[in-house]
Each structure stands twice: as structure tokens, then as C-alpha cells.
Amino acid sequence: MLKTIFVWTLAGIVTIVLSICALLTVPFDRRGRVVHLLYARSWGWLILKIAGVKMQVVGLEHIDPKRPCIYMCNHLGSFDIFALLACLPVQFRWLAKVELFKIPILGWGMRAAGYISLDRSRRRRVYESMESAARKIREETSVVIFPEGSRSFDGAMQPFMNGGFNLAIRAGVPIVPITIHGTWEIMPRTTKRVKKGNIRIVIDRPIETKDCTMKDRRRLMAETERRIRANLPAPAQGHADAA
Questions:
Q1: What topology does CATH give the domain 2-232?
Q2: What is the pLDDT of residue 101?
Q3: Nearest Cα to 32, choosing from 128, 143, 155?
Q4: DSSP string, 20-50
Q5: For a designed S-S bond to 113, which of 13, 32, 64, 216 qualifies (C-beta 3.0 to 4.6 A apart)?
Q6: What are phi and psi of 74, to 5 degrees?
């Protein structure tokens, strides 16, 4: 328990300091590029270090920093966010639930970085979120989406939602599947307690969508899910049975 208090206290201080720096940078960085690469990535890296988490990243060669894409990842826990910020050395924007943007200081920093809020309360709001994401892609900035929609309750993958795949087809950009393993053991959704651990991230080959139509959506969903599952260690796929 003392370790958890220590981690979240330092994480809170880091969040406040970097968010304030981000807000001060906004007048000189309207697109949030400096805020993301300097402050947001540092935030993720520092919190991993504070928590005593080690990382292994495989497949960085599959990232083309000059070509926008949609990174799609499985979502095991809150540490997925810190891990992706620390390991992806490119410009990208989060498509994140609107509740996060309402958190004082953290939400301000997210807006300063140009991250996109997703409000599922109304269909019109979801559409507006996707339009904002499409605009970011047209500005040649990649987007990160958790196609499951929320963190896993039991460590197992949940069914994928359509929105990210609709966006990929409309934008004609590749989907890059990313598998995250280890964050469930560090801090599952059911607790705030933080444990030391190892995170492994596998970045798979891009899945092209250039000539796809909405008829191809189910195929893209199935292929993305298949690749993410294929890069999970066998025991990780059975969390639900072990719980």
C-alpha cells in the first residue's frame, strides 16, 4: 500500500508540472506537436519509471513516421496509456473517453496536446469525435484507438467496436495492430494498487485499407483482432479462466 501511495503521489506531481508546462506552451504550439512529443511522452515514461515498470518493445520497424495511420491496441489497464506514450516515437493523438478531459489539470493538458474526446452519450457526439479524428489524420497525424472501447474487467480481450474501423476505411489509412501484455498484472481495472512488472509491446505489420469499403469492415476487424491475439503469450489469453 505504501508503494501505491508513493507512486500516485509522485505521478500526481509529475502530471501537474507537465500539464502546466503544456498549457504555457499552447500559444506557441497550436497543433500540440511539442506538447505531445515533449511533455506527454515524458509523462508516460516518468510514471513507468516511478512505478518500477520495465518495458520491451518489438516491431518498431513497422512504424512509418511519415505516413499517418490508426494504431489499434488491446486495452488491459491504465498503464497501457503510459506504455504507448513511452514507446511510440511518433506524433499521434488519443481518441479517449470524454470523462478523462473533465479531470482538472490532466484534462487541460490533454486538450493542449490536441487529443480527441469521445462522448458516447449520443450518436451525434460520437460522429463529431470521429470527424475530429479524421481531421487530425488529414493533417498527417496518426490516431490511437482502443477498439474494445474500455479496459478489460478480467484480463481477457473484449469484442471490438466498429468506430475505429469505419474511420480507417473513410480515411484510407493503414491500421497498425499493437499487442500489449503485462499491464493487467501491474494494475487491473478493479484496483488502484500498483505492482512492479514488465510490459511487452508488439507492433505488427500495417493492414492496408486504401481500396476497402464498408463491406470490408468485418474482415478488417477480424484480421486486426487475430494479429493482436497472435502476439499475446498463451497464458495471457486465458486470464478470464484463471480469474
A1: Glycerol-3-phosphate (1)-acyltransferase (3.40.1130)
A2: 86
A3: 143
A4: HHHHHHGGG-TT-HHIIIIIIHHHHHHHHHH
A5: 32
A6: -70, 160
